[in-house]
Amino acid sequence: MTDEASGPGLRAGLEAILLVIDEPVAETSLAQVLERPVPEVSAALRELAAEYTEQGRGFDLREVAGGWRFYTRAECATLVERFVRDGQQARLTQAALETLAVVAYRQPVSRARVAAIRGVNSDGVMRTLVARGLVEEAGTDPEGQALLYRTTSYFLERMGLRELGELPEIAPFLPDDVENLEEQKQ
User: Fold this and answer.
1) Weakest-pLDDT range from 30-34, 95-99, 113-117, 157-161
2) Do residues 90 and 158 make contact, with C-beta atoms less than 8 angstroms apart?
3) Which ranges of 71-122 would DSSP assign to H, the alpha helix?
């Protein structure tokens, strides 16, 4: 359908441009870039939009705000939202990563122990990790009745691990005698 002298066809050119834009683009702009008459571009856009709808694609081509743009089809919105939300959960702050590492290597562990190792209060970070499903309650400490925390199977999944034994060795980075470290800080 295309030859090397003329480049891609009108419809392919429209799709390629619409795929990379992040805001609606006017028919006149598309016509200028594709070096085609505006009525021809306008007709091709309407045909593409109708085809996508007829085929039940996961996206729509819509004319909004004086231009054209791809949008997620309404019935696919929950899937896209879940995908985007999962992507956000993968991004953790430095504090969250440090806290998660302490829990992973010292579990079951109390918030106080995590705070002692990190040197700062970690309550808010722990709540965030619990909310994201990476850490969960693991009972209470028999001595002090403090809640204990451990990593979840979701943590293993996100880290690409089958079991905690696959975590890399941390001995050079974390002191074995955390109690003495706690006393030295006081």
Assistant:
1) 157-161
2) yes
3) 77-89, 94-106, 111-118
Q: Write out the two tokens for 75.
A: 């019935």
Q: What is the Cα–Cα distance from 89 to 87, expressed in whole angstroms? A: 5
What is the pLDDT, as a whole number, of residue 105? 92
- Cα(166)–Cα(145) distance, integer angstroms: 30
> Model confidence over 101-128: pLDDT tens digits?
999 999 999 999 999 998 898 888 999 8
Q: Which amino acid is at 49?
A: A
Surface-to-core class of residue 68, CB atoms within 10 Å of its CB (0-12 exposed, 13-18 middle, 19+ buried)? buried
- Tally of residues, the chain: 186
107 near 138, Cβ under 8 Å? yes
CA atoms within 13 A on the CB side of 73: 12
User: What are the C-alpha distances in Å from 52 to residues 17, 68, 76, 148?
Assistant: 16, 14, 14, 53
Q: Which residue has the higher pLDDT, 143 or 88?
A: 143
pTM of the complete model: 0.47
Q: Residue 183 in 3-state DSSP?
A: helix
- Whether the pLDDT of residue 67 is over 70: the answer is yes
Tokens (6 digits) for 163:
């079991």
